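Predicting holo structure, 2-phosphoglycolic acid bound.
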Amino acid sequence: MPDVTDQIIERTPLVAGNWKMFKLRGEARAFAHALAAGLDQVDEVDLAICPPLTCLADVAAILAPLGVGVLAQTAHQAASGAFTGEVSMSMLVDAGATGVLLGHSERRALYGESDGALAEKVPAALAAGLEPILCVGESEAERDAGVTEERLAEQVRHGLAGVASSLASDVVIAYEPVWAIGTGRTATPAIAQAAHAHIRAVLEELFGAAADEMRILYGGSVKPANAAELFAGPDVDGALVGGASLAVGDLLAIAAGALAR
Ligand code: PGA
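Done. Tokens:
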């Protein structure tokens, strides 16, 4: 039997742009065409866009056939039901989505997306054939109180409680320290790598060797100027980008930063 511990797992970097509540359909289509034209510059990096729901189908029609992921920014765990304003995983598939962002800190803080709901949402996404990106991250107060590692472990364990090891490699984790989101304050490469290594150790407890195949993205004020140094961390497998993902050139420049790994 080959010694699997000696195998080097190559994880393809993933750069995902979270547009949040920005862009009308025409703007989204123009962005998608411009991104399509620039894809050959970064063909060794996986790319994904998380557009608002109103333009998800437009973006998916242009980019999904080219292999770019198109993710919703949240979804409900139930297959259907009386949940006004919500959208199910199968509705997202129907609209052309390939994945879904779950547990973003803005959803957790502003809309009460809880670890308990996420424990149902991640398996529901996988069952529908969607790639989930589960976001985790500590607040500034938690970091100052020295409970970052506990908080990250708790979020990862809850969010992935219903995921079988055989499907673990289909899940992406995004480490986004809440104090770095939209603030211009980026974690240093050392802080990011330490958090990612900790998250991977928790994933190993849960899934064993499959943890090595799981991608862990960093998010929080990622820009073209700091992307390459963040991606240098061996457990930093890409980025979840907010503000800088609104301009095609910036998103491509960040993806180019991953090529140098
Ligand atoms: P930011 O957002 O890049 O604007 O900090 C990151 C995110 O919220 O995913």
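Residues 19-212+221-260 form a domain with the TIM Barrel fold (CATH 3.20.20.70).
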